[in-house]
Fold N-acetylmuramoyl-L-alanine amidase.
Amino acid sequence: MIKKITTILAATALTASLFIFSVPGTQASASTQAKVNASILNIREKPGTTSKVLGTFKKGQVITAIQQQNGWTRVSFSGKNGWVSSKYLLPVKAAAKTPAKPATVTKPATYYVTAIALNIRKAPGTSSTVLTTVKKGEAVTFYEKKVISGKSWGRVKTASGKMGWASLSYLTSKAPAKPASKPAPKPKPEPEPSTPTAEPDVKYYVTGASALNIRKEPSTSSSVVTAVKKGEAVTFFEKKVVSGKSWARVKTASGKTGWASMSYLSTKRPPAYSVSGKTIVIDPGHGGSDPGAIGKGKTQEKTINLQTANELKLLLQNAGAKVIMTRTSNTSRKLELSERVAISHKYKADVFISIHYNSASDDGATGIDTFYDKTYGNEAELAKSIQTELIKQTGMRDRGVKTAGFYVVKYNKVPSVLVELGFISNPNEEKLIATKAYQQKAARGIFNGLNKYFD
Ligand SMILES: [Zn+2]
């Protein structure tokens, strides 16, 4: 705390003693250069913290100051004017004051992108329109260099033939050490402590978390500024590695800036799930006074049916499906089979799925089966899709797709299946199927099967 105040006082003192600014109305020729001394410095339309933010500067960036007024500095950025708080500016030595060099025309050369994704813009400047994006490791043809506000830009042509300007900070003449025969790998964040690693305006999508916390600082103990839902995009600015974990400074669609864990961010737009918008009735078998099958280890089927159903519900809801559960408790009144079917009809379900675990007198019985009935719709296709994905996810023995006269399937007028996700009567399998990890795999299998079915 004390250190911070000292820094600000020192910065203010320097600002007052060393800066020479022109008075309003005089030519901009008296402009001077200054260095940004804040991690993010807002550029505002007018002097004052309530004024509209036009853009931001990063720490260490050298900017052109045109005028000073009541603790605010008018600056030029990307050919426009704005205001920043003078507190966060440090003067730059006279040598750095030399005016921007005219474009340096050099012989066309091949340059390679070092950022995760590099924006190619209409004009040199981070506020200029993005024409296209070039991925890490890809080559561009370099034509000329221009220095704007202390930043170097290169006029380049992409492999697809587009001309534009890219920041030279993310270009290198050194070819990446990769076998030429292999296709270009997906742009993946790499664990290198350098910052920044990408130019602003690279879009990242929230994956793997239903909602991603955006924090004030790159740390899980830092306060949460806002949260971004799965699938939504954020603008990526820079990467920082803290205690071996990668963090990204991002801006949300609502304009909030903060830090997010990179584990939940991807440059790949997440696929739209085909279950999105569908109504799925999940029927955890048994319940109440009916425990279903009971294992030698005292596992009750009704309990693990509900646990697995809840895992499935979570996946489906996060993918945008409407989920109705026939029961949500293990202790409530036992639901009749006809009542479960009535729920399916009432909500005009797109699919009804009843979740069970199996039991047999032979305690060596093992594996998964999916049951359907021939009466309604394309149930066989639904059962096949779910069974295939269940086996893929769990690695269990495939007992196949079968027809059977189970009430909830037979009398259901919507495509419906009943899954038996493993044998509670098999002591080894009982231990496995009682784990959250197994139930999550089974839920993922059903989820994937449903998506394939709706595709
Ligand atoms: Zn059962």
